[in-house]
From TrEMBL:
Any Pfam family matching the protein: ABC_tran
PANTHER family, sorted: ATP-BINDING CASSETTE SUB-FAMILY B MEMBER 10, MITOCHONDRIAL, ATP-DEPENDENT PERMEASE MDL1, MITOCHONDRIAL
Transmembrane segments: 20-47, 89-117
Protein name: ABC transporter ATP-binding protein
Gene3D superfamilies per the UniProt record, alphabetical: ABC transporter type 1, transmembrane domain, P-loop containing nucleotide triphosphate hydrolases
């Protein structure tokens, strides 16, 4: 129930719908019981047991409620019919129809209002999960499978709606229906009703025993669904490689193994769940059968109960069966919902290790420079950077070079606070970046990566990503600086052309120039280029390099370079080896030193 309480906090904005649902459910439960009690006067008329009542009865207390109700009904039947039994029958039938009509109307209104609550909670949970997914650091997703996260925001949230939130429909309606029905049953026959209560704990115990393992079974199903969604996501992302290496059958085998496990888990879960309904129904009919024997004995042998009351009593007893079955199914729903809620809440309650301090500074300007002081960092066990120091004065371009794994891209991740340093401090204008709001820190920076991350949208929307309400002129100007305007103009719809999933309708060079245009439009004071030209052909590289040089003019920049020919104009070149600086200086200074940098340049020249 802890998970249920945590999920219910999302219902607060919709509580007015909950109150309306409760109100109409109370009316439904009351009229549901009364509609069966109203059968007694009709049966009395049919069985010729109805005595004319000429005087309005007086209510004398709860113990006399059955006689008062029958006399009250009898009085109005007598008044209306004037002794004509067919008229009396029509009146009683009309009353029953009205009661059943009101019962179903109130049931509809209760479900109408709870729909807004259920779907509102579903929407808000999904929104909260999406907000959390985008808030959590990149390191979180290096351990999680994307498909599992997708499964949690889709099928797990739906499971919560079907299980937990369906209980909200039953939590008032069914218990009250049972309560009102039992009160009327007590009014008709205390002895018979006490007899019914002997069987209820027995039936409840059997149903509870069936449902005990449902949570674990449901957990297995949800986890396996996340597994095969991850395989689908990986397959779509790497389809070219799969086809190139003829690995379709290998991936199909992995996927079919996962779906086979899902098939087995689902069968076990659903078969256990499906056992609830027939078991509950059989136990209910068993109770009805015993009641027929015991009540029949009271009518036929003991004559302590009249036939009309007994038939109405049997209708009331059957009226308990449906809500009792619904409650037993709801208990299974709680167990299934627990597993789904646990997985959803695991994400929602994950603490973000990259947090903001209270009253963090909202910095909008950049005045002196960026400094990394004695920073050390590790992704897992081994340090990638150790006691690393670097100063990037305002307006300067600093290039980081070195072999793969030397820590170049890590510096970009730390400066943008995608990760936090283990030791040391990174400062902008003398202020630790941990003291700044994450939004204002990232507003000061533009990022162009080796992999041009574009979205399935128009060229205009992709370029305008970093600047809301950018004008047409702003976007075109940014594209011109990035050497992208010419090829964009040749696209079928120009800037309104959709570039496909991950921009796959464009070439590598075109994608990279769009990414540069996006950074240019944002116009941040600090630019970080993470191997922005390493994946391009010579012609594309020339266009992109020209765009980068235009963009970096008079701008503070950190350039992580693979091709050393692209960074020879940098103010400072820093050579890294295993997370430590081995050389730094201008291109000419480092070439004169005849050290590691010169060896790297000569190796690339030979290549």
């Amino acid at each position: 129930m802890d998970y249920f309480k945590k999920i219910l906090r999302f219902a607060k904005p919709y509580r007015r719908y909950g109150y309306l649902n409760i109100f109409f459910n109370i009316l439904y439960a009351l009229f549901s019981a009364l509609s069966f009690a109203a059968l007694i006067p009709m049966l009395n008329v049919l069985f010729d047991k109805a005595e004319p009542v000429t005087k309005l009865p007086v209510y004398t207390g709860i113990g006399d409620i059955k006689d008062y109700f029958l006399d009250y009904m009898g009085y109005h039947v007598t008044q209306y019919s004037g002794g004509d039994k067919m008229k009396g029958l029509v009146l009683v039938i009309g009353l029953i129809l009205v009661l059943f009509l009101l019962k179903n109307l109130f049931n509809y209104l209760a479900m109408y209002f709870i729909t807004f609550l259920r779907n509102g909670v579903l929407k808000d949970i999904r929104n909260a999960m999406y907000a959390k997914i985008t808030e959590l650091p990149i390191s979180y997703y290096s351990e999680k499978k994307k498909g599992d996260v997708i499964a949690r925001i889709t099928s797990d949230v739906l499971e919560i709606q079907h299980s937990f939130l369906s209980i909200l429909e039953l939590i008032v309606r069914d218990p009250l229906t049972i309560l009102f029905t039992i009160l009327i049953m007590f009014g008709l026959s205390v002895k018979l009703t006490l007899f019914v209560f002997i069987f209820i704990p027995i039936a409840g115990g059997i149903i509870s025993w069936i449902g005990k393992s449902l949570k674990k079974k449901s957990d297995d199903v949800q986890r396996e669904q996340g597994q095969f969604l991850s395989i689908v996501e990986e397959t779509l992302g790497g389809l070219r490689v799969i086809k190139a290496f003829n690995s379709e059958s290998r991936f199909y085998k992995t996927f079919s193994t996962s779906t086979k496990r899902f098939f087995d888990f689902s069968n076990t879960l659903l078969n256990r769940q499906n056992l609830a309904s027939p078991t509950g129904e059989f136990l209910g009919i068993l109770v009805i059968g015993v009641l027929l024997w015991f009540g029949g004995k009271m009518v036929l042998v003991e004559e302590t109960l009249d036939a009309s009351s007994f038939i109405a009593y049997m209708g009331l007893a059957y009226n308990i069966l449906t809500p009792a079955k619904s409650i037993s199914k709801a208990s299974y729903g709680v167990k299934k919902g627990n597993a789904a809620a646990e997985r959803v809440l695991e994400i929602l309650e994950t603490e973000n290790p990259i947090s903001e301090i209270a009253n963090a500074i909202d910095k909008t300007d950049f005045n002196s420079g960026l400094v990394l002081k004695n920073i050390s960092f590790k992704y897992a066990d081994d340090y990638v950077l150790k006691n690393f120091n670097l100063t990037v004065p305002k307006g300067h371009s600093v290039a980081l070079v070195g072999q793969s794994g030397s820590g170049k891209s890590t510096i970009a991740n730390l400066v943008t606070r995608f990760y936090d340093v283990n030791d040391g401090v990174i400062e902008i204008d003398g202020i630790s970046i941990k003291d700044l709001t994450k939004k204002s820190l990232r507003n000061l920076m533009g990022l162009v990566t080796q992999d041009s991350i574009l979205f399935n949208d128009t060229v205009r929307k992709n370029i305008g990503l970093g600047k809301e309400n950018a004008t047409e002129e702003d976007i075109i100007e940014a594209a011109k600086i990035a050497n992208a305007h010419d090829f964009i103009s040749e696209l079928p719809l120009g800037y309104n052309t959709n570039i496909g999933d991950s921009g796959n309708k464009l070439s590598g060079g075109q994608k990279q120039r769009l990414a540069i245009a996006r950074a240019v439009l944002k116009n941040p004071p600090i630019m970080i280029l993470d191997e922005a030209t390493s994946a391009l052909d010579t012609e594309s590289e020339r266009l992109v390099q020209d765009a980068l040089e235009k963009m970096m003019r008079n701008r503070t920049s950190i350039v992580i370079a693979h091709r050393l020919s692209t960074i020879q104009t940098a103010n400072t070149i820093v050579v890294l080896q295993k997370g430590e600086i081995v050389e730094q200086g201008s291109h000419e200074e480092l070439m004169a030193k005849n050290g590691s940098y010169r060896k790297l340049v000569e190796m690339q020249s030979l290549g």
